[in-house]
Amino acid sequence: MTTTDAGLAGSHATESARQGSSNQRASGAAADPERVSAVVGAALEGIRSAIREHRVTYSEFDAFKRWLIDVSDTGEWPLFLDVYLEYEVERVAAEDQAGSTGTILGPFWLDDQVRLQSPATLPMRDDEPGTPFVLAGQVRSTDGEPLAGATVDIWHTDDEGWYSGFAEKPPAGNLRGVVTCDDDGRFEIHTRKPAPYTIPLDGPTGKLTETAGWSPWRPAHLHLLVSAPGRRTVTTQLFFTGDEYLDSDVASATKPELILDPRPTGNGAEIRSDYDFVLETG
Predict the structure, then answer these.
(1) Are the CB atoms for 111 and 155 separated by under 8 Å?
(2) Nearest-angstrom CA–CA distance, 241 and 143
(3) Are 150 and 226 in contact (CB under 8 A)?
(4) How far, rounded to the nearest angstrom, does the alpha carbon of residue 219 sit from its chain's CA centroid?
(5) Where is the composition biased (Polar residues) (predicted)?
(6) How far apart are CA 35 and CA 189, in angstroms?
(7) What is the pLDDT averaged over residues 164-179?
(8) DSSP H or E stretch at residue 79
(9) CA atoms of 256 and 249, how far apart (whole Å)
(10) How far apart are CA 130 and CA 137, in angstroms?
C-alpha cells in the first residue's frame, strides 16, 4: 500500500468491523462487570506502570492524547488493534482449540463476496498482474472425514499490495471469493500470488510505527476463513517461503505451520501449493 490510503482504508475497516468481521468470532455474551474491571483495570495499570517506569512528561502525555484523537478521526482503531494486539488474543484462543493452525483475521475481511464452486477462479481484471497461483487441498474433520460442502472464504492483495474494498485501485470484489468444496471436501482456487505491503504510513498507526523504528511490512499472504456446518471456523493466513518479511511481520501473525512452498505446475509461470484444513466440532 502506498501512503495515500490511510483514510479510505481506516473508514472501510471501521465499517467492516461494525458490520460483521467481529461476528466471525464473537460469542454475543453480555459483558461481565467483574471481567471488565479485571481486564480493563490490568490494562490501565500497565499504562500507568509504563508512565512511572519511563518518567513520561506532560508533553509526551499530550502527544499521546493527540495521537488517540487522530486514530479515532481516521477510523484506524481496527487497523491498530488488529496489527498490535490481535495476535495475543488469537494465541489465548488457540490454547483450547484443535484442528488446523489459525492466526489473526486482520481488518480487511469483507462480507457478501461472490460465491464460487470448486474448482474456482477468483474475480480479477483481464490483465491482472502477478504470478498465476493455485491453492488446492481438502477440508476434513478431526477424525479424517472429508467435509462435503465446506467453504473457503479467501481474500488477498494484488501484485502491488492493494486490497479491493480498501483502496481505490482494485475493482470491488477483486481477488475475493467464497469457494464451496466438492463432495470430498476438496477445493482448487486459481488466483495470483499476493505481494508484501506496508500498513498505511500516512495515518497515525503508520506514523507511530515509523517513529518507533518498527518494521511496517507484512509478508505476502492469503487470508482464509474455512468453515463447515457444525464445525469451528478456522481463521488463518498462509504465507510464502523466502519472503523477506516473514521474520519482521508488523502484525506478528506468521507461524511455521502456515508457510507455503509453491512449485511450478508446468503451465507457463503458474505455481501451486496444496494445503489441507482440519476442522473440529463447533
Answers:
(1) no
(2) 29
(3) yes
(4) 11
(5) 13-26
(6) 43
(7) 95
(8) helix 77-84
(9) 13
(10) 22
Whole-Å CA distances, 278 to 94, 139, 222, 224: 14, 6, 17, 13
Backbone CA torsion sign across 30, 32, 35, 41: positive
Amino acid at 28: G
CB burial class (10 A; 0-12, 13-18, 19+) of residue 44?
exposed
- Other C-beta atoms closer than 10 Å to the C-beta of 229 total 9
Amino acid, single-letter form, for residue 116: L
Mean per-residue pLDDT, 72-95: 94
Residue 60 backbone zone (phi > 0: left; psi -120 to 50: alpha; other: beta): alpha
DSSP code string of 187-199: EEEEEE----EEP
Domain ranges in the chain are: 6-30+76-279
Strand ranges, E, within 100-216: 115-117, 120-121, 132-141, 151-155, 176-180, 186-192, 197-198
- In the numeric block, the cell 481474500 is attached to 155
Tens digit of pLDDT for each residue in 247-282? 999 999 999 999 999 999 999 999 999 999 999 998
Percent of the chain surpassing pLDDT 90: 87
Three-state DSSP class for residue 138: strand
Mean pLDDT of the chain: 92
Phi, psi of 216 (to 5 degrees): -95, 5
**What is the rounded distance in angstroms from the CA atom of residue 149 to the CA atom of residue 70?**
44
User: For the whole model, what pTM was predicted?
Assistant: 0.90
CB atoms within 10 A of CB 236: 24
Question: CATH number of 6-30+76-279: 2.60.130.10, 2.40.50.140, 3.40.50.2300, 3.30.2350.10?
Answer: 2.60.130.10
pLDDT tens readout for residues 217-239: 999 999 999 999 999 999 999 99
Radius of gyration from C-alpha coordinates of the chain: 20
